[in-house]
Amino acid sequence: MQVKSLLIVSSLVVLAACSTTKPEEKNTMAVETPVAPTANLPKAASAVAKVEVSPFDDPASPLSRKSVFFDFDKYTISAADTVIVTAHAKYISTHSTAKVRLEGNADERGGREYNLALGQKRADAVKKSLVLLGASEANVESVSFGKEKPVDFSHNEEAWAKNRRVDIKYTSR
Questions:
Q1: Which run of H or of E encompasses 146?
Q2: Are 101 and 143 in contact (CB under 8 A)?
Q3: End-to-end CA distance of the chain, in Å?
Q4: Is 134 helix (H, G, I), strand (E, B) or coil?
Q5: How far apart are CA 138 and CA 166, in angstroms?
Q6: Domains (range + CATH), the chain
Q7: Contact 144, 116 (CB under 8 A)
Q8: In the list 10, 52, 74, 89, which could disulfide-bond 133, CB 3.0-4.6 Å?
């Protein structure tokens, strides 16, 4: 029995030595930092900064759309795309340094010469509209790439519709 008691006592001593004690709580104090009044700050620092976005980069502006699309074998500007042409005409007419190159394109169907001529008719149609809406003819150039510059290389109606276009490229703004 003595051995048993000795084992129990020694186990309790070992367990007592291994027990953890509660760490001593440190005396901490909350410190408040004074905040400078916003009246002394410049307006930009005290308010949300407004960022000016170019109308050419603003998706809500028709100037951000720089392609006019056409139906198969046509060079008539659709009613939907007249908004784009009108916006660009207004910009060109109010910015004397603005110059554009209209790049006419066609889909892959048809011969090379035919598509070059069709691309030119499309570019000229957009040019005529821009000039009628107030853009200076001297600031607008029209060229044709025919089927040589597709944006979609697939061989289906969806791709062809993307490739039947005139791209409005500003050479100066």
A1: strand 140-146
A2: yes
A3: 104
A4: coil
A5: 18
A6: 66-172 (3.30.1330.60)
A7: yes
A8: 89
Task: Give backbone dihedrals phi and psi of 2, rounded to 5 degrees, phi first.
Answer: -65, -35
Query: Are residues 142 and 120 in contact, defined by beta-carbon separation less than 8 angstroms?
Result: yes
CA dist., res. 172 & res. 129, Å (int) = 20
CB neighbour list of residue 73: distance below 8 Å, 6 or more residues apart: 118
Question: How would you write the pLDDT of the chain (173 residues) with one tens digit per residue?
Answer: 554 544 454 444 444 444 444 544 444 444 444 444 555 545 554 456 677 888 898 999 999 999 999 999 999 999 999 999 999 999 999 999 999 999 999 999 999 999 999 999 999 999 999 999 999 999 999 999 999 999 999 999 999 999 999 999 999 99
Tokens matching residue 11: 């186990």
> Measuring CA to CA, how many Å separate 158 from each of 57, 161, 173?
25, 5, 32
Q: Which uninterrupted H or E stretch holds 168?
A: strand 165-172
Name every residue whose Cβ is closer than 8 Å to that of residue 96 and which is 6 or more positions away in sequence: 136, 139
* 139 vs 97: CA distance, rounded Å: 8
